[in-house]
Amino acid sequence: MNGQAMSVWNERVHAVCGRFETRYDQCQSLFIGDLRPSLLGTTQVAHIRSNAHAIARSEREAGRDGDSHCFLVLQQQGEMSIELGDRVMELREGDMALLDSAQAMKMIPRGLFSHVSIHMPRERLKNLDASRFGKLSTAGACGQLLATMVRQVAEGELEQWACAEDGDGLQAALVGLLGSVLEYRARDSSPGLHLHEVQSLIQQRLDSPRLTPVALAEELGISSRQLYRLFEASGDSVCRYILRERLLKAAQDLRNPAYGHRSITDIGTRWGFADSAHFSKTFKKQLGMTPRSYRGQGQ
Q: What is d(CA 11, CA 298) in angstroms, rounded to the nearest whole number?
């Protein structure tokens, strides 16, 4: 794809999604940018695939656009961070989010991604609490139904059945489900959410430098306060638990012969310790010896 094709991509994004600007820092011929719009009844859907380094909409452009839609997004492939003011939201494969197109936002993909954006008229969402927009939880029956419907839209399963009589029925169904799904964020705890489920998710994310209580709560669809209370009820804290588990993984690697060629700094970095001095100090405080001494005793 050449520079002219990048301009064509930007024009298509502007026409379908609004004034977003794309940045790609490598050779333009390596850029991938596919956007396929479709209609289901009166509902506009955008199928997007790109390896862009950033796709952003400034506050000035957001205010000038006068956009009348919000985006119900399903991340189909890859990962990205989305900056919404002072909030940062992480989307992985299978995650859904409801984004207000009138706000400034910056999407930062990590490599090639594809997602589907269902354009929801702002007027239809006026009775929903916009402060709860963001990453959506699929806990509960309505969450599961919403995820199923959005996946069907994303995979094109409904296109062969679409007809003029559908009108705005899809929008009405999605709005009805969103009304309940957004309430999950306001409850004292996510339906059916137990400590062991949260701990299991933490285990899956331990090697991510972006694992924080805020990001974890966002992914679970609960508030940070609810997350802290869940651990406090067992006499622990979420921060201590994450630190403990990361140190345990690092200790296992230090005595694993398969990792004998890796430096202590590399092992610390792998488990979320970007600063080697901090890793060594924390490791010694928890295990009573430095990482070097611990590795030496296992040899």
A: 60
